[in-house]
Amino acid sequence: MPANKIVMTGTAGAYGASLLFALKEAEIRERFLPEFVKGLEATSQIQVENIDDFLSEQESFTVPIGKRGVLGAFFEMGKKLKVGFDIFQEAIPLSQEVIEMCEKYDINPYRLEDRGNYLIVTSSSEDLCARFQEAGIQATVVGVQRPDKEKRIIIDAEEVTYLQRQQELELEKL
Fold first, then answer.
1. What pLDDT is stored for residue 167 in this prediction?
2. CATH class given for the domain over 5-168
């Protein structure tokens, strides 16, 4: 029996980046081009309004991505389902604007607050992604369930780390 896959909607950290922009607007406008700011605003506006409209019997679990970002949502999923998984960090969608803002302020974009996006455990990832994409919402396979309880983050082909509970919120670092 093939392992369930984990699908993420949207892009990581978009909502948190909009909060960061609100906190540091003058500094960001001074440092970045107007096109960058427009891209940031557009990224944070794409959200799932009603998740139930997209789900079928193939989707066994859904968790919203919240204050602790996509990695925090993975942590909650593992705790509730008592399962392990591999997270493919390179597959987690990030906008260039979020990456650049996070680099400037030394914030982890994978732990940055988000809203309106979800992690969904499914046995039918291609169908689920297609349903979201038909509605204009990005959906990407970002992980797979494991038969054991290990929660691994696959950084790349040579680097693997393990998911740890996040102690502080990323924006509290500022």
1. 80
2. alpha beta
pTM equals 0.90
Domain locations in the chain? 5-168
Q: Note the residue count of the chain.
A: 174
Is 2 or 9 the better-scoring residue by pLDDT? Answer: 9
Contact between residue 113 and residue 171 where contact means Cβ atoms under 8 Å apart: yes
Q: What is the rounded CA–CA span in Å between residue 11 and residue 92? A: 7
For the stretch 20-27, contacts whose Cβ atoms lie closer than 8 Å and that sit 24 or more positions apart, written own/partner, are 20/101, 20/105, 20/107, 20/112, 20/171, 20/174, 21/101, 23/171, 23/174, 24/105, 24/174
pLDDT at position 173? 80
